Inverse folding.
C-alpha cells in the first residue's frame, strides 16, 4: 500500500515521526463540563470524557462507537483542539499538542482535519463551494502550484463532484453531495489524519453507501489515518480495522474488528451487537440480550464499573472496584471483572 | 405467515390506489401516487424507503391529517370496511385515537411540555370516554404506563415530559397512543432518534403490545434491519409509488426489484466480508414535483432498458410473480421475471445484508 502514498506525505511522515511511534497518542484524556442545576443549584460537572487512552498508527482506521452521550464527539473535538481538555495528554507525531498555542498549532491543523455529522450546518450557506473548499488553503496562506482554483477543482473531482460546480452554493446540493464538499475541504491540506464525527449518519442508506465507499477509497489512496466516530456498529465494522467501545466517558473495550465483532470480551459490547437489528438475523430470534433501562447520567456515574447498573453479570466486586482496561482471554483489551469468553453466540 | 394477496379480503385496513398531491409554488408534489396495501389485526406492515418517498404522507392520510385546502386526496382508505377519505372533521376526530393511533419519531411533538404525562394521558382517554370519572381515567393511565414498562408508574405519572429520558418519553407516548385500545397503530420512525439498546426495548414493546391488543401495526422506517425484526409484510416505496410488496421473507430474502436490491447492497452488515465494497445506488432520489417518466427509478437503475426500451416510457405495473409460486409477492419492474431471478442470484445475494 505504501506505493500509493502521496510522495511528499510519505516523506513528511518518515521525517518527523520517531520510528515505531504511533501517529496519535492519547493518555488519560479528560473533559468535564461545569453545569449548574437550577438557578442557585450546586455547581456540578458533566464527566463527558473521563480518562481515556488510545493510539492511532499512520494509515490506521480507529472506530469509536457507543451510545448517545458517551463522549464520542467531545473526544473528537479535543483531538482537533476545538475543545480544551480538562486534563490528559495528546501527542501527535511525537509532539505534545495538548496545550499548544494557535501559531504552533498551525502545522497540526494541516495534518489533522475533521468532518462533521451534519452536512447542512457545517457549510457556510453564503459561500460558494469553491470558497468553502479553498478555506483551509486561504486560512493557512497556502498557494498551491497551479493556483487555488485548480487545486479546488482537483479536490472536487477526487470526491466525485463536478469541478464546474465551483461557483455554486451549498443549498444547490443534496445531503450526500454536501458531505462530499466537507470531505473535499478536509482533504485540501493533504492531512495525515481525519477525525470523522458521524460522517454518514444524516444520510439516506443509498447515499450513505456512496460516501462510505468514497472515504474508503481515499483512505487507501492517501494512506489516511482515521478516527471514525459513529453509533452505527455495522458502518464502523465496514470502515475500521480497530474499534474502541465507549460507555459513560470511558473506553470499555478496544480490539481488532475480528475481536470486537466475533468474540467481544466486554458484556456491553456484546449487548450492543445483540441489539442491532440486522437483516441477516431475519427469522433468528435466539440469544438476544436486552439491556434494561437507560444510560445513567454522566454527572454522577455509578461507582466501580460504570456499566454495572445495566449489566446482567454484575456482582458486589463490580460496585466496589473499577475494573482496569487490560488484555482478556478473547484477545481484546477490556475493562471487566468477569469478561466474556469464547465466540459470540 | 400471511401474505398480502390473501389477506386483502377482510383486512382491517385496506388502502386502494391512494393518491396525495400538494400544490406548491414550484408545482404539484405527487407525494403518493397510486399506492395500495392492507394490514390485518395482529399483523405488522413495514413501510421502507428513503427520505421523501411518501411514507409519512401515506400514513397521515390514514388518520385524515392532511389539510383539505392544500392537498388533494383520491383513492380509498377502508378502516374496518368504512372509507375514511373525505370524512368530515368531527368523524375523523372520533376515528383518531379510538380506532387508529399514531406514534412519531419525536415524542415531544405529541407530548405537551407544560402538562404532566398523566394529565395528557387522562385527557386522551376522556376524549373517547367522556363519562369516565377523573379517578378512573387516572387509574387507567397508571395501568398503561405500567404496561409500557415505566417503573413506579403511580409516581412517574405526575412527571413532566422533560423529566423523562428519550426512551421513557417514547414509552409514555406509546402509552398515550394505546390508552383507548386502538385497532390500528401507526408508528412513524418510532426508534430513529433512540440508541440501539433502547431501540431494541421499544421494538420488543411494540411487538408485545401488538400481541396483547391484537392490533394492526404499520411501522414506517428507513432501516431495513428494524423492518426485518418486527414486520410480517414489507412495502418498499420509491418516489411515491410501490416498488415491491410481499412478506418480509419474500422482500428481504428474495428481493425482485432493482431498487430493493440497491437498498440491500447499500447497507453494511455485522456479518460477511467487511472488506467487500458496498454497492451504492448511483445518484439521488428524484423531486416529486418532477418525477422521471416511465419507471421513476430508471435514472438510477443499473438494469434500465432505455433507448426504445420500456423503462423510460411506461410506468411498470405492480404485478404478482408468475413463474415462482410466491403468492402475495408483487413487483413493479419491466425486467422479465427470469432475468430478475438470475441477476439476484449472481449480483445481489452475496453483498451487504442480502446474505
Ligand atoms: N458544552 C457542554 N456543556 C455541558 N455538557 C456537555 C457539553 N457538551 C457535551 N456535554 C455532555 O457531555 C456528554 C458527552 O457528550 P458528547 O456530545 O461527546 O456525546 P456523543 O457520544 O457524541 O453523543 P451523540 O451520539 O448524542 O452525539 C453528554 O452527557 C453531553 O450532554
Ligand atoms: N404539506 C406538504 N406540502 C408540500 N409537500 C409536501 C408536504 N408534505 C410532504 N411533502 C412532500 O411529499 C414528499 C413525501 O414526503 P414524506 O411522506 O414526508 O416522506 P418520508 O418518506 O420521508 O416520510 C416529499 O417530497 C415532501 O417534501
Ligand atoms: S465489571 Fe462487572 S458490571 Fe462491569 S461489565 Fe464486567 S461484569 Fe458487568
Ligand atoms: S422498470 Fe426498468 S428502470 Fe425500473 S426498476 Fe425495472 S429495470 Fe429498472
Ligand atoms: Mg455526537
Ligand atoms: Mg417521514
Amino acid at each position: 500500500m505504501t506505493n500509493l502514498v502521496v510522495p511528499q506525505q510519505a516523506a513528511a511522515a518518515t521525517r518527523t515521526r520517531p520510528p515505531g511511534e504511533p501517529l496519535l497518542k492519547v493518555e488519560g484524556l479528560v473533559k468535564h463540563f461545569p453545569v449548574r442545576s437550577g438557578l442557585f443549584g450546586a455547581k456540578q460537572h458533566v464527566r463527558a470524557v473521563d480518562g481515556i487512552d488510545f493510539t492511532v498508527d499512520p494509515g490506521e482506521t480507529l472506530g469509536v462507537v457507543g451510545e448517545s452521550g458517551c463522549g464520542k464527539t467531545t473526544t473528537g473535538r479535543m483531538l482537533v483542539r476545538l475543545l480544551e481538555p480538562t486534563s490528559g495528554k495528546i501527542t501527535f507525531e511525537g509532539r505534545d499538542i495538548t496545550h499548544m498555542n494557535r501559531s504552533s498549532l498551525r502545522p497540526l491543523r494541516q495534518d489533522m482535519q475533521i468532518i462533521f455529522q451534519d452536512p447542512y450546518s457545517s457549510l457556510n450557506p453564503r459561500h460558494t463551494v469553491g470558497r468553502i473548499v479553498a478555506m483551509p488553503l486561504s486560512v493557512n496562506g497556502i498557494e498551491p502550484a497551479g493556483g487555488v482554483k485548480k487545486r479546488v477543482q482537483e479536490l472536487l473531482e477526487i470526491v466525485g463532484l463536478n469541478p464546474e460546480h465551483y461557483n455554486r452554493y451549498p443549498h444547490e446540493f443534496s445531503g450526500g453531495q454536501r458531505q462530499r464538499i466537507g470531505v473535499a475541504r478536509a482533504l485540501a491540506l493533504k492531512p495525515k489524519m481525519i477525525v470523522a464525527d458521524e460522517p454518514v449518519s444524516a444520510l439516506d442508506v443509498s447515499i450513505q453507501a456512496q460516501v462510505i465507499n468514497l472515504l474508503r477509497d481515499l483512505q487507501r489512496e492517501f494512506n489516511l489515518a482515521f478516527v471514525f466516530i459513529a453509533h452505527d456498529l455495522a458502518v464502523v465494522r465496514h470502515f475500521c480495522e480497530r474499534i474502541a467501545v465507549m460507555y459513560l466517558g470511558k473506553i470499555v473495550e478496544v480490539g481488532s474488528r475480528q475481536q470486537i465483532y466475533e468474540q467481544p470480551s466486554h458484556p456491553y459490547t456484546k449487548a450492543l451487537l445483540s441489539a442491532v437489528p440486522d437483516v441477516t438475523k431475519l427469522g433468528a430470534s435466539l440469544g438476544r440480550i436486552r439491556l434494561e433501562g437507560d444510560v445513567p447520567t454522566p454527572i454522577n456515574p455509578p461507582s466501580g464499573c460504570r456499566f454495572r447498573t445495566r449489566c446482567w453479570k454484575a456482582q458486589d466486586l463490580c460496585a466496589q472496584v473499577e475494573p482496569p482496561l487490560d488484555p482478556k482471554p478473547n484477545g481484546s483489551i477490556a475493562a471487566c471483572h468477569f469478561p466474556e469468553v469464547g465466540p459470540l453466540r | 405467515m400471511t401474505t398480502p394477496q390473501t389477506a386483502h379480503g377482510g383486512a382491517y385496513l385496506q388502502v386502494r390506489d391512494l393518491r396525495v398531491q400538494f400544490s406548491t409554488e414550484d408545482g404539484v408534489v405527487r407525494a403518493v401516487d397510486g399506492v395500495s396495501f392492507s394490514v390485518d389485526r395482529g399483523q405488522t406492515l413495514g413501510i421502507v424507503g428513503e427520505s421523501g418517498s411518501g411514507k409519512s404522507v401515506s400514513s397521515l392520510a390514514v388518520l385524515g391529517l392532511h389539510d383539505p385546502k392544500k392537498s388533494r386526496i383520491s383513492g380509498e382508505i377502508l378502516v374496518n370496511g368504512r372509507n375514511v377519505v373525505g370524512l368530515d372533521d368531527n368523524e375523523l376526530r372520533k376515528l383518531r385515537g379510538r380506532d387508529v393511533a399514531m406514534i412519531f419519531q419525536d415524542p415531544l411533538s405529541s407530548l405537551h411540555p407544560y402538562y404532566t404525562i398523566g394529565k395528557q394521558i387522562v385527557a386522551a382517554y376522556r376524549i373517547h370516554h367522556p363519562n369516565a370519572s377523573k379517578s378512573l381515567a387516572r387509574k387507567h393511565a397508571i395501568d398503561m404506563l405500567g404496561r409500557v414498562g415505566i417503573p413506579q408508574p403511580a409516581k412517574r405519572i405526575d412527571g413532566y415530559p422533560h423529566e423523562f429520558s428519550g426512551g421513557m418519553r417514547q414509552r409514555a407516548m406509546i402509552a398515550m397512543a394505546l390508552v383507548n385500545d386502538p385497532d390500528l397503530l401507526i408508528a412513524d420512525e418510532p426508534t430513529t432518534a433512540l440508541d440501539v439498546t433502547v431501540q431494541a426495548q421499544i421494538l420488543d414493546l411494540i411487538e408485545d403490545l401488538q400481541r396483547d391488543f391484537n392490533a394492526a401495526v404499520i411501522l414506517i422506517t428507513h432501516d431495513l434491519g428494524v423492518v426485518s425484526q418486527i414486520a410480517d409484510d414489507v412495502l418498499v416505496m420509491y418516489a411515491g409509488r410501490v416498488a415491491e410488496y410481499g412478506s418480509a421473507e419474500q422482500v428481504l430474502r428474495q428481493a425482485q426489484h432493482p431498487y430493493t436490491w440497491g437498498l440491500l447492497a447499500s447497507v453494511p452488515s455485522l456479518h460477511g466480508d467487511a472488506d467487500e465494497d458496498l454497492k451504492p445506488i448511483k445518484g439521488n432520489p428524484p423531486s416529486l414535483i418532477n418525477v422521471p417518466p416511465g419507471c421513476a427509478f430508471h435514472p438510477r437503475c443499473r438494469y434500465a432498458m432505455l433507448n426504445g426500451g420500456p423503462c423510460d416510457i411506461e410506468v411498470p405495473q405492480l404485478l404478482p410473480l408468475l413463474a415462482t409460486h410466491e403468492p402475495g409477492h408483487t413487483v413493479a419492474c419491466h425486467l422479465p421475471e427470469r432475468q430478475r431471478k438470475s441477476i439476484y442470484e449472481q449480483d445481489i445475494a452475496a453483498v451487504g445484508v442480502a446474505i
